[in-house]
Amino acid sequence: MKRLIPLLVSLFILAACATATIGTDFNDAALPAFEIGATTFAEAKAALGTPESSVLTPKGNWLHRWAYVRSDADAMGWDVKTTTHRKVVVLVFDGEEKFLGIVQLDGINLSAADRKRLAATPPAQGK
Asked: Which CATH number characterizes residue 100's domain?
């Protein structure tokens, strides 16, 4: 019985803390080094890892999405605290795999100047 109590306490402590993740974490700190028209998809992939998804647009551009979500839960007694960290970036590349800009940015700290410099410009409106 004396050996069972420490085991039960250890199991309770393990059950009281949990972490769940979706996706693979990526190095979003590398984004400010990207240059529109110069950074290639191969360089972006080397810096950020393999994208979660890729879509070819009707105009022949590629949208590559990196996403990571981590949720932590701590339970002590009846009090449960959860924190969720989410970061998503979608980059657009032309048919020659040159970086055209960021089309979505969520949960990533990027300076206002870098946000403006790296934002993808919308395509010109057709007549």
From this structure: 3.30.1450
Query: How many whole angstroms from its chain centre is CA 115?
Result: 16
Distance CA 49, CA 121 (A): 24
Contact indicator for 49, 26 with CB cutoff of 8 Å: yes
Is 106 among the domain residues?
yes
Contact present, 111 and 53 (Cβ < 8 Å): no
* Cα distance between residue 27 and residue 46, in whole Å: 10
Q: From CA 7, how far away is CA 84, in angstroms rounded?
A: 30
d(CA 49, CA 23): 11
Q: What is the pLDDT of residues 58-96, one digit of tens each?
A: 999 999 999 999 998 887 667 778 888 999 999 999 999
Torsion angle, CA of 107/34/50/103, rounded to 10 degrees?
Answer: 50
Residue 4 within any structural domain of the chain: no
| Residue 39, domain extent | 16-118
pTM score:
0.77
Number of domains in the chain: 1
